[in-house]
């Protein structure tokens, strides 16, 4: 069974950077899209960035130019490099995988807090 485990969250000053990691284990060949969502207090979970099956990427408008999603297939790890962070980036960040013929998989989440 596929599992996703995030790491790398924490407290950072506005303007700073963080890199999130998502380690995938299990039948990783079943993944056809993988990415990051986030949920701020009182708000709905939203897509941050995703890598699609063909290798293309999509970003939320609010993070375009500041965040970069990437993956290391040899390590079965997904990354989210976050630069120029601001208070609106404060949220729990979740790793997400769309899986063939099965329900999507979510990680447990990692908290990112940006202090202004």
Task: Describe the protein.
This protein is mainly β. The chain has strands at residues 3-7, 10-13, 18-25, 31-39, 46-51, 57-59, 67-72, 77-82, 91-99, 105-106, 110-115. Strands 2, 4, 5, 6, 9, 10 and 11 form a 7-stranded mixed sheet that branches. Strands 1-3-8-7 form a 4-stranded antiparallel sheet, with no helix packed on it. Strand 9 (91-99) and strand 10 (105-106) form a beta hairpin.
Fold blueprint:
Blueprint: E1 3-7, E2 10-13, E3 18-25, E4 31-39, E5 46-51, E6 57-59, E7 67-72, E8 77-82, E9 91-99, E10 105-106, E11 110-115
Parallel strand pairs: 2-11
Antiparallel strand pairs: 1-3, 3-8, 4-5, 4-9, 5-6, 7-8, 9-10, 9-11
Please supply descriptive tags for the structure shown above.
seven-stranded mixed β-sheet; 0% helix; mainly beta
Question: What order do the SSEs take from the amino end to the carboxyl end, as H and E?
Answer: EEEEEEEEEEE
Which sheet architecture does the biggest sheet show?
Answer: 7 strands, mixed
Q: Runs with pLDDT <50, length 5+? A: none
- Assign a percent range to the helix content: under 10%
Radius of gyration: 14 Å
Q: What's the mean pLDDT score?
A: 95
State which percent range the strand residues make up.
over 45%
Report how far apart the termini are: 40 Å
Number of strands: 11
User: Which of globular, elongated, flat, extended, rod-shaped describes the shape?
Assistant: globular
Tally the helices: 0
What structural class do you assign from the helix and strand content?
A: mainly beta
């Amino acid at each position: 069974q596929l599992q996703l485990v995030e790491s790398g969250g924490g407290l950072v000053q506005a303007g700073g950077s963080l890199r999130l990691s998502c380690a995938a284990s299990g039948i990783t060949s079943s993944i056809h899209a993988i990415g990051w969502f986030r949920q701020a207090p009182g708000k709905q979970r939203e897509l941050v960035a995703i890598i699609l099956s063909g290798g293309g990427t999509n970003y939320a408008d609010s993070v375009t130019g500041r965040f970069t999603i990437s993956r290391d297939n040899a390590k079965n790890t997904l990354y989210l490099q976050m630069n120029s962070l601001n208070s609106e980036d404060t949220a729990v960040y979740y790793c997400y995988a769309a899986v063939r013929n099965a329900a999507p998989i979510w990680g447990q989440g990692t908290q990112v807090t940006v202090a202004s």
